[in-house]
Amino acid sequence: MNVARSFNNWRKYRQTVGELGRMSTRELHDLGIDRGDIRNVARAAVAR
User: Which InterPro entries match (predicted)?
Assistant: First the structure.
């Protein structure tokens, strides 16, 4: 994996964590996500 791809993956991970972190617990629950699962969801988003 090259540096640009690594950086883009890191940026996508941080953006996803940030967006989900700003959501209320209710909004996360509506999406089926627990607050403790935010990092796992972000990792899965990068893997796609």
Answer: YjiS-like
